[in-house]
Design brief:
By secondary structure, the protein is mainly α. 47% of the residues lie in helices and 11% in strands. It has 14 helices and 9 strands. It has a 3-stranded antiparallel sheet. A hairpin with a 2-residue loop joins strand 3 and strand 4. The radius of gyration is 20 Å and the shape is globular.
Length: 280
């Protein structure tokens, strides 16, 4: 096996089968496709990117192993990362800002149950009300929920991140938050993502999510998973252990002055500075 392909994390047989059926993954062409991807990146003078194979394979899987789409997505990711530094820069886990964020226990990646090879669940909390991707929102939060920010976040999730979102579920949602979602978030989602997004009210959300999802939730919320306080501490330790990765990540970016071809795009409402990607 080539040394660089050895760096790719081994996935379980169950996940391998899912990758083959849902993402068109074929182990016989993994190395060839990754090498072609890497060679293309070396020719992109405007991109300074993390090019280890574990990073690159995430973009290929996120694009169902379409090399051309992966090129567009990684270019877009680093372009977006450079133009929207408030979302991607200065994430040192030991900085005052990040430590304050960690102490809130805002985010936890929930472990899957035994034998469950499905998508991982990102669990986000605001104060004491919770959600599987947003929930109780105070007046302070509302000040930050501008249409421009929501558009940036929606564009990032859908077009830039090397992920495939299965569902976006908001639970225990008060009426004002539903209004915010319908006004500031929903308009910027694609039709595909709108079909995967669910906003469930305070009443009856447990019945609405179904047993499969409910079982993945922390113990405090009627699920079978580990207690939320334990998960918060676990992911706080994990976050700090990747300090070198986050500091290094600030060195990767896009320099538009070196881009060989581009046309203006309105994707982010940043005419004149955000470029539409052009792939050779």
């Amino acid at each position: 096996m080539h040394p660089r392909t050895q760096s790719i994390r081994v996935i379980s047989k169950e996940l391998s089968n899912i990758a083959a059926k849902q993402l068109n993954e074929d182990p016989k062409r993994t190395r060839e496709t990754l090498e072609a991807f890497d060679e293309w990146l070396k020719k992109q003078r405007h991109l300074q990117v993390r090019n280890d194979y574990q990073h690159l394979i995430a973009f290929l899987r996120g694009c169902k192993w379409s090399l051309e789409r992966a090129k567009q997505k990684i270019d877009g990711y680093y372009t977006f990362k450079t133009l929207i530094p408030e979302l991607f820069r200065e994430r040192d886990p030991l900085s005052d800002e990040m430590q304050a964020a960690r102490r809130t226990g805002l985010i936890a990646l929930l472990p899957n149950g035994k034998g469950h090879a499905g998508p991982r669940t990102l669990f986000i909390t605001f104060h004491e009300a919770i959600s599987v991707l947003t929930t109780w929102i105070t007046a302070g939060h509302l000040l930050h929920c501008t249409p421009a920010l929501m558009k940036k976040c929606a564009t990032c999730i859908e077009k830039m991140y090397p992920i495939r979102m299965n569902k976006l579920i908001t639970i225990n949602t008060p009426k004002p938050a539903e209004v915010i979602y319908n006004t500031l978030v929903n308009p910027f989602l694609s039709d595909k993502l709108k079909k995967r997004a669910f906003v469930l009210s305070i009443q009856g959300w447990k019945e609405a999510v179904g047993n499969d999802i409910l079982s993945l939730l922390p113990l405090e919320y009627g699920g079978d998973n580990l207690p939320l306080n334990f998960l918060k501490d676990e992911w706080s330790r994990k976050f700090k252990s990747y300090r070198d990765w986050f500091i290094e990540d600030d060195t990767y970016s896009c320099d538009e002055t070196y881009r060989s071809r581009y046309t203006c795009s309105k994707d982010l409402g940043m005419e004149g500075s955000f470029r539409k990607l052009s792939i050779d």
